[in-house]
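Hi support team,

I'm filing this because I wasn't sure whether my run with thymidine-5'-diphosphate finished correctly. The job status page said complete, but I'd like someone to confirm that the output block is well-formed before I use it downstream. Pasting the exact inputs I used:
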Amino acid sequence: MSLVQWVEFPPLGDDRGSLVALESGKTVPFIIKRVYYIFATKPGVSRGFHAHQHLNQVAVCVTGSCRMVLDNGTDRTSVWLDAPTKGVVINKMMWREMHDFSPDCVLLVLADKHYDETDYIRDYKSFLEAINNES
Ligand code: TYD
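And here is everything the job wrote out:
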C-alpha cells in the first residue's frame, strides 16, 4: 500500500460557485461515523503527533492549507493539503503530524469510528514497536 493515497472530490459547481459532496463508501472509502474540524490554529503550532491502532480517516483542507507528515514506520513523507477537492487517506497505524497551518485553515477530518482515546498511540517509539510487533 503506498504511503500517500489521495481521494479526489469532484467539484460540482455551477455559475454560482462550488460545491463538494462527501459520501460514505463513494468518494470516501469507508462509512463515516465521525466528522471533526481543526481551525483557528495559532501561528507556529503543529498538531497530530500520533497514530491510531484501528481508526481510518480522510483529511481535507476545506479552506486554507497545511502540511501533513505521513509515516508508516518505514517511510516518511510530507504532503500539502491545499485544495477543498483533494483529501488524503490516513489509515490505521500511520503516524501523522500537521504543520504550517495557514491562518485561515479549516482541516476537516472524516473518521470511520467514534472518538476513543485508547485507540491513540501518542509516543513515536511505541508506534515503531507496535509496527514491528505487527510484522
Ligand atoms: P487530538 O486528536 O490530540 O488533536 P490533534 O491530533 O489535532 O493534535 O485531540 C485534541 C483533543 O480533543 C484531545 O483532548 C481529544 C479531544 N478530541 C475529542 O474529544 N474528540 C475527537 O473526536 C477528537 C478528534 C479529539
